[in-house]
Amino acid sequence: MRHDPYAHCPRLPEEGEIDPRSVFLEQAPGAQSLFCLTDPVELEIGPGRGWFTIERLQYAPSVRVLGVEVRRKWATIVDERLKKRGLGTRGRVFADDIRLVLPRFAARSLSVAYVHFPDPWWKKRHNKRLVVGQELLVELSRVLVPGGELLIQTDVFERADEYERIVGESGLFLPIEQTARVLDHPYGARSPRERKAMENGLPVARLRYKNVGAQP
């Protein structure tokens, strides 16, 4: 039998409601003084190799970031990397499918959601695999606080057009600035693909919104 090196990958609870804030207490029992249990958490969907999360935590010492990564290998590596860098009490990555776990997240438990360069599938038969769609937006609006932020980035401008259309039709999010498309964002971190595009002088489409669909 082949050994599975990632059988121990970090996973979110399989049943019941998930409060993103509670996962950080598991890393630092009794450390409630580190943060307020009612403070929302930031979510990165598909953190990959984790450098955005690491830079974000270093840039904003009061922030906590939870990553949901479908690839077990990278969820395991990045979660361990965060611990080794002393960031494990504020950053966690779990090997799960965001489409399955997000509906179980507690309402109004997130302050920001990041979606970096999603949906690398171009053929029509792969449309069912796309992450960004109405179902995801409905759940993001529910779990984000009123006024909570959503950032979507892509270097495929046809996809940016489609995301902008989908978000606009949802009625759940409005641009933070005059338009959804912004030249840059204020989060003090870069995903590897974003950084590479910038170094090569390639344009990146950034869409930044605030949540208006959450009920008070």
Molecular structure report:
This protein is an alpha/beta fold. It has one domain (37-211): Vaccinia Virus protein VP39 (Rossmann fold), CATH 3.40.50. Helix content is 30%, strand content 21%. It has helices at 22-27, 51-59, 72-84, 98-101, 134-143, 157-170, 192-199, and strands spanning 41-45, 65-69, 91-95, 110-116, 144-154, 173-175, 181-182, 205-211. Strands 1, 2, 3, 4, 5, 6, 7 and 8 form an 8-stranded mixed sheet that branches. Strand 1, helix 2 (51-59) and strand 2 (65-69) form a beta-alpha-beta unit.
Short characterization:
This protein is an alpha/beta fold and 216 residues long. The protein has helices at 22-27, 51-59, 72-84, 98-101, 134-143, 157-170, 192-199, and strands at 41-45, 65-69, 91-95, 110-116, 144-154, 173-175, 181-182, 205-211.
Class based on secondary structure composition and strand pairing: alpha/beta
What is the number of domains?
Answer: 1
Beta-strand content estimate: 15-25%
Biggest beta sheet summary: 8 strands, mixed
Give the termini distance in whole angstroms: 53 Å
Briefly, what CATH class?
Answer: Alpha Beta
CATH topology: Rossmann fold
| Rg from alpha-carbon coordinates | 17 Å
Mean pLDDT, nearest integer? 87
**Secondary-structure element order, as H and E?**
HEHEHEHEHEHEEHE
Shape: globular
Assembly level: single chain
Determine the fraction of residues in helical runs and give it as a percent range: 25-40%
The CATH superfamily turns out to be Vaccinia Virus protein VP39
Number of strands: 8
Continuous helix count? 7
